[in-house]
Amino acid sequence: GPQAPSAAGLLGDLLAVPVRSPASEPAAARRGALTTPGASPQAVVVDLGAGTIDVISAESDVVAAGAGDLLTAAVAETLGIPRAAADWVKRGPCLRVDGGQRFEAEDGSRGFLAHPAPAATAGMLAVEGPGGLLPFDRRHGPGEWRAIRIRLKLAVLAGNFQRAVRTLGQDLSQVLVVGGPAGDEELLAIIARSLPNGVAVGRGHVGGTLAG
Length: 212
Prior knowledge:
- By secondary structure, the chain is an alpha+beta fold.
- Helix content is 34%, strand content 22%.
């Protein structure tokens, strides 16, 4: 009701510390991202989430549908694997287990695993999963799957990012990327390549300028 205390005020009373609530989720993302060392006050913040890509400037923000979950679905559909597995497979480099401890990497190099791989992974592409090597495909070579994975990231994430930037309609000088998918080195490089020359791109370090 109209006399009910605000959520920030109630939390402040409970914790006995000042609590402030930003006006929106994009505003909160921007405020956090700008605590990155070296962040410019005019930086555009890109918040990559499961369902949306939020592109946030000092004056306005654009929310574009299609982010991490859409990439997971695309990988699952392309490979014919469960989404739970696709969530690990989409993240980065794989290798092909040639049998025992031998493997072939995406760049064509070969080597030996630290420990023998399970027999079920022989001849299959695999990534590091929550319980060790996660086999997921035997139809593609490592380099071939890398090319497919990059194309999917370009289509799903970089494409939606560029659409949001066009809608924002603002010249970019510095871009800070935050959110779960920001830990993906491939994706960070893809976003950097999709921007004009001279635009600085980096991963946010939230709280990096704060003491404690």
